[in-house]
Structures are given as structure tokens and as C-alpha cells.
Amino acid sequence: MPVIVIANPKGGVGKTTLATNLAGYFASQGHGALLGDIDRQQSSRAWLSIRPEQARPIATWDINEDYVAKPPKGTTHVVLDTPAGLHGWRLNDALKMADKILVPLQPSIFDILATQDFLRRLADEKAVRAGEIDVGIVGMRVDARTRSAEQLQRFIEGLKLPVLGYLRDTQNYVQLAAHGLTLWDVAPSRVQRDLDQWQPVLDWVGQTKGGPKADSKGD
């Protein structure tokens, strides 16, 4: 059961947008998707509470500072949303659970400076260096053709962590989130540009240590 942790100690970088849409993708593939939330704001849980009954189901996870319940029976894919300021034992616990860590990062110098120590910490983690945990970065609210994207790429190169892709700044995410929906809950023609941007991220998420994982139900 893969566990994908969405993490960045900087607030407002798009963690919940990344987490909810990734869970929505897993659900769209027929997987038993679960969305956990250890952020005190409980944004992901609040989003799940407005998700329409007719939408593909995404389970929630009883997880807090003192107690982590077992994932519901039938869960096959877990996405864990984490809070701003993630560090210390909370970060260690998240690392223990993680198979992969996705770090959303906006390309402004302020976001980069606020995140650089965290990325260095991840790169130096024994499990990451040993290949037991994969770490990937997703540029959020950025056009890949801009100087901002180049700046982000230059910064990341020194850490030897991959930039998986760039997700543009669009109202599609805002409008869908307001209804408890994701890119995979609407007609592809409405959001095709965004689906295309997600593909490299999904390819990376679907990879296992033995190579790419077949995208079929039950994997």
C-alpha cells in the first residue's frame, strides 16, 4: 500500500491542492484511496466533508497528535497532507510512513529560502539516500517557460532532487475544490491542459523500485 506524503514546512504553497487532486486521481483509477490530514487546520478533511456522494469515494483517516487509526479495510493508496512548520517528531513519523514524498514549491525566492533547509534535510535522510523513500518536487502556480521556473530548477539542481513538473495558476483548482471535486471528477475536455501537466507527476508516483507500475485496478 503506497503512502504518498505531501510536505513543505512553508504554508500556502499548495499542499492541500496537491493532496486532494492526487487522492482524486487514485479514486478515478478505481483504487481504494485514502486522504489523511495531520494539519491542525484540517483542510483536506473539510474538503472531504463537501465532496458529493456521487463522486468516486475517498476515505479519510483518523490521525492526530496522539493516535493514528489503521487505514480502513480496502485501502490501497494513501495520500497524507501535512501542516506548515512540519519538523521534529512529526516529520520523523511522516517519514516512517512514507514511500514517496511530494514537495510542492512555489518559485518565488521567499518560498525557496523558506524551504531550502527542509529540502536539504530530506536529501540527507538515510532512507532517502538509500533509495527507500523517493522525494520529488512539484512547482506550483508557475509557468514552466518563465524565469521563475528556471530559478527554481537551478536551486533544486544542487540538491539532486527531481522537479517532476509544473502546475499552472488557474481557477480550475479553486472552483473544483469549492465543490469537493478534483480534475478527475469532471469532463477531461474542461481541464485537459491541467491533466497534461499532471502526467509527469503521476508517472513518478506510479513507479516502484522495480520500475514503472502498471496503471491497472488493484495495483
Automatic annotation (TrEMBL):
CobQ/CobB/MinD/ParA nucleotide binding domain location is 4-182
Q: Which residues form a coiled coil?
A: none
Q: What is this protein called?
A: Chromosome partitioning-related ATPase of external origin protein
Query: Which organism is this protein's natural source?
Result: Herbaspirillum seropedicae (strain SmR1)
